[in-house]
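Reviewers of the previous submission asked for a worked example of the structure-prediction workflow described in the proposal, so we include one complete record here. The input consisted solely of the amino acid sequence. No template or homolog information was supplied to the procedure at any stage.
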Amino acid sequence: MTQRITSLQNEYIKSLCLLHHASERRKTGLFLIEGAKLCEEALRSGWPVEQCLVTEKEANHPALNGVENKIVISEPIAKKLSSMDTPPGIFMVLRQQAAAPEADPDFILALDHLSDPSNLGAVLRSAEAFGAGLVFISDGSVDLYSPKTLRAAMGSAFRVPVMKGDLADFLLRRKKSGYSIYGAGLDRQYKNLPEISFNDPSIVVIGNESGGISPEIIRCCDSGLYIPMLGNNESLNAAVAASIILWEQSKWR
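From that input alone, the workflow returned the following structure tokens.
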């Protein structure tokens, strides 16, 4: 028998609404996604589904073929659960899990205190497209499982190996194992991107959108990296810069 929930005061629904907050996502290890496309990507990527919730209108959506134990919810509940202006009517509760990276990937992209969830999502899309072996996110960066990040990633968050932690410690350990570490920046005296060889194991660090790479992390880098630009603009969006670097390193694979 199909379970139905119509009350906004339902305790389970209240607990899911709390997943809009990063602190609750960290506490429970759960996160909420919405929309047929993103839910379909999660299923296609083999992500285990804790629970599926749908409105009556979307209960038989083709994206949900094979999904069991669906809960049918009312439209007001869908509106309450949604982080979007127009609720899509399809939700999934997923458990956080890390995609296992190779032991020593050829290329690692590291993000130092990235703060914009849309930027993180776009970086993950490019990381999948151009074959980054790992994306390392520093402590203090935006939450990987925020709704905006997941929407911007368009499913790549389910497939790209991601780690999060103390970036300085990670870089120093990788340096000892033979990685070359480059910090992307605006100093024209840095090495130009096209002149860098990515034939050997390498890490490129992208800094915070407004503050760049922190001094502690700069000290961990072997060299700076500069993306040559023809126009008069002084900088690139962090996700755009990451995409250019990812494209360049892909030529060496």
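The domain at 3-95 is CATH 3.30.1330.30 (60s Ribosomal Protein L30; Chain: A;). We consider this example representative of the routine output the project will generate in years two and three.
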